[in-house]
Amino acid sequence: MKKILIVEDETSLAELERDYLEANGFAVDIASRGDEGLKMAVTGDYDLILLDIMLPKVNGFEICKQIRSVKEIPVLMVSAKKEDVDKIRGLGLGADDYIVKPFSPGELVARVKAHLARYERLAGNQKEKREELQIRGLLIDRASRRVYVNNKEVVFTTKEFDLLTYLALNPNRVFSKEQLFERIWSLDSMGDIATVTVHIRKIREKIEADPSNPQYVETVWGAGYRFKG
Ligand code: CA
C-alpha cells in the first residue's frame, strides 16, 4: 500500500484529503505543523508528500527544499494563493506539481495517482539500466546472470561472472589483482591472487574476439586490470 504524508494545518481540509485518499486505497498520515511535517517527511518512508505552503514553524517552500536535498519522491504543493504558484515555479524548489485551493477531491486523487505512476516508471527504468550492462557487443544481464557476446549466450562460472560484472560496473578504473581478489573472493578461504589471473584469462577467451589483444579487459602493466568502457 502506498503511503502519503499530508502536511496541512487546516484540520478539516487535511481530514477531507485523508478520507478521499484512504477511500482510494492509500495509507495516510497527517502533520499539522511545518517542523513536524518536515521531520516525518525526511525520516518516514512515504511515497508522496502533499504539502501546504502556509504552515506554522516551517513553511512549505522550506520543507520542499529540504525534502528534495535528501529524497526522490513526488512532492505536490497545495496553495491558497495565486501568487504562490508563481513562487513555486520561480524558486525551482523541485516540487513536482501544485494544486490551488479550493480543489475537488477527485482532482487531488487523480494528481496523486498520476505522480506515483510517473515515479514508478522512472524508478523502473533506472533499475533496468543497472541490471543490464551493454558494452559494444557485450551484454551482461545481472538479473538472470547471463552473458551474451554478439547476441550469443556464453556460459560463465559464478566467479567469472562476478569478476566481469565488477569490472564492467567500474569502467576505466584500474584494479590491482589484490583488490579484485579481495572484492570477489574475500569470503572464500580457498584460492590466492593467481586465481585472478586465471579468471581474467578465461573471461577474455569468452568475450574477446582476439584474447591476446583484448578490447574489454585490458592489462595495465605493473598496476592491474581495467575495463574499457
Ligand atoms: Ca495553511
State the main characteristics.
binds calcium ion; Rossmann fold; 5-stranded parallel beta sheet; single chain; 4-stranded antiparallel beta sheet; Arc Repressor Mutant, subunit A
Kindly summarize this structure in a few lines:
This protein is an alpha/beta fold and 229 residues long.
Write the layout of secondary structure elements.
Elements: E1 3-7, H1 11-23, E2 27-31, H2 34-43, E3 48-52, H3 60-70, E4 75-79, H4 82-91, E5 97-100, H5 105-131, E6 132-135, E7 138-141, E8 146-149, E9 152-154, H6 158-169, E10 174-175, H7 177-185, H8 194-207, E11 217-220, E12 224-227
Parallel strand pairs: 1-2, 1-3, 3-4, 4-5
Antiparallel strand pairs: 6-7, 7-8, 8-9, 10-12, 11-12
Structural features, described:
The chain is an alpha/beta fold. It folds into two domains: 3-126, 3-Layer(aba) Sandwich (Rossmann fold); 130-227, Winged helix-like DNA-binding domain superfamily/Winged helix DNA-binding domain (Arc Repressor Mutant, subunit A), CATH 1.10.10. The protein is built from eight helices and twelve strands. Strands 2-1-3-4-5 form a five-stranded parallel β-sheet, sandwiched between helices. Strands 6-7-8-9 form a four-stranded antiparallel β-sheet. Strands 10-12-11 form a three-stranded antiparallel β-sheet. Helix 7 (177-185) crosses helix 8. The protein is elongated, with a radius of gyration of 26 Å. The mean pLDDT is 90. The site of calcium ion (CA) has 5 residues, from loops.
